[in-house]
């Protein structure tokens, strides 16, 4: 640690140690993160474009999927471009203000995605388990309300933790053992009392993390019960496959998030937390378009119609 930082309670910048000890794997990590970023960005951009331009997809399910795709593009854009630069930077650093903004954006998007996944589970529950009242309940106004509530809860949660975290003193070190700015590694280098931060993390973790996860899990249990009771074997197998893939992403997202935030700072582990950060910040947004939409026949059909219509208009102006 540089001596310039030893007596400062508010460092001008933080050093990100995630890539410092990595030497031979830098080329591999650079191309891996770049590939995942391109796949995530293009996949989610295609979903948004197709859902907006295809009238057949103007339904509650694809309204939520469009929101999810937008969140995933923002989510991965908050960290990966900076990580690609940091692979080659010596040393990789981030300013105090940039660190605060990055963490606030990450927490906002993560919280919003959690509630949005719960809203999508609610939509699927009514569509499969209560089909007779589905169209009456899941109207446009309710979808907008659920989406707005998701964003509001995510932003309020992020604002609380950002204010609490960046009011701490960092007089011992400015070196963050991570690829990006996150709450646990920042708490671990603070010389202030972080007990209030840990209580806030646990309390909001129950509301923002565990509650949407439990609601989503219970919804899918009811959905699977109805699907398994169906007499149509082909439809049953398709629904089980879809639910299983959805649940895989949901469990991976929520479990890594809960593991990261809902535990004491004393149990912070560099390797485990870096892996968890990569899973819920990079891998999950990359998998979402592949699992939720691009495997869906309705999306494939809409993409085909949209492509053919654009191709026809190109040759028949």
Written overview of the protein:
The chain has a three-stranded mixed beta sheet with strand order 2-1-3. The longest helix has 34 residues, at 96-129. The protein has helices at residues 26-53, 60-86, 96-129, 131-137, 140-165, 183-188, 195-228, 233-261, 270-293, 297-315, and strands spanning 13-16, 93-95, 175-176. The chain has a single domain (8-127, 138-296), classed as Rhodopsin 7-helix transmembrane proteins (Rhopdopsin 7-helix transmembrane proteins, Up-down Bundle). With 317 residues, it is an all-alpha fold.
Question: CATH homologous superfamily - what is it?
Answer: Rhodopsin 7-helix transmembrane proteins
What gyration radius follows from the Cα positions, in whole Å?
22 Å
Instruction: Tell me the quaternary state.
Output: single chain
**Helix/sheet category:** mainly alpha
Task: Tell me what the CATH architecture is.
Answer: Up-down Bundle
Domain module count = 1
């Amino acid at each position: 640690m540089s001596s310039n930082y030893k007596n400062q309670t508010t460092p001008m910048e933080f050093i990100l140690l995630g890539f410092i000890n990595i030497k031979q794997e830098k080329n591999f990590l650079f191309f891996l993160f770049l590939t995942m970023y391109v796949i995530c960005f293009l996949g989610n951009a295609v979903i948004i474009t197709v859902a907006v331009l295809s009238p057949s997809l103007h339904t509650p399910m694809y309204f939520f999927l469009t929101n999810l795709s937008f969140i995933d593009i923002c989510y991965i854009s908050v960290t990966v471009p900076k990580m690609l630069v940091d692979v080659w930077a010596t040393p990789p650093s981030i300013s105090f203000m940039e660190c605060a903004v990055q963490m606030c954006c990450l927490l906002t998007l993560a919280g919003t995605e959690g509630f949005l996944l719960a809203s999508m589970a609610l939509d699927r529950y009514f569509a499969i388990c209560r089909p007779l009242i589905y169209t009456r309940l899941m109207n446009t106004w309710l979808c907008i309300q659920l989406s707005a509530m998701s964003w509001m809860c995510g932003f309020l949660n992020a604002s609380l933790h950002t204010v609490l975290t960046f009011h701490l003193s960092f007089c011992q070190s400015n070196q963050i053992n991570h690829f990006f700015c996150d709450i646990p590694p920042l708490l671990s280098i603070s010389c202030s009392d972080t007990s209030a931060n840990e209580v806030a993390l646990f309390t909001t973790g129950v509301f923002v993390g565990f509650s949407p996860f439990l609601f989503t899990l219970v919804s899918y249990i009811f959905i699977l019960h109805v699907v398994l009771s169906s007499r149509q074997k082909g439809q049953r197998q398709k629904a089980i496959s879809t639910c299983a893939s959805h649940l895989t992403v949901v469990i991976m997202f929520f479990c890594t998030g809960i593991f990261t935030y809902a535990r004491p700072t004393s149990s912070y582990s560099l390797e485990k937390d870096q892996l968890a950060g990569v899973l819920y910040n990079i891998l999950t947004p990359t998998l979402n378009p592949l699992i939720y939409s691009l495997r869906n026949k309705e999306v494939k059909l809409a993409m085909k119609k949209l492509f053919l219509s654009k191709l026809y208009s190109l040759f028949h102006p």
